[in-house]
Design brief:
Number of strands: 11
Order of helices and strands: EEEEEEEEEEE
Oligomer: single chain
Structural class: mainly beta
Number of helices: 0
Helix content: under 10%
Length: about 120
Amino acid sequence: QVQLVESGGGLVQAGGSLRLSCAASGDIFNINDMGWYRQPPGKQRELVAQITIGARTNYADSVKGRFTISRDNAKNTVYLQMNSLKPDDTADYYCNAYRFNKIYWGQGTQVTVSS
């Protein structure tokens, strides 16, 4: 199976930046799409960004123009560069990965944006 470990979360002031990383290990061969979701306090988990094996990307409207998803297949890692952060970006951020017909999730990393 695939194990995913997120890192890079923390506390940042509004307008600041953070870069999240998600490293995959285990059965990493044939991983296809990867992505980032987030769950604000008391709310549903929502899509942030996705990236395909061919590096095509898709973003939620709320983050488009501010966040950038990328991947380094040689390092088995997906990144989320977050710029111009807003308090509404405060959430637990989770990465995921698809391999064949299965989806894998990391444990999450917390991002808090102060006013």
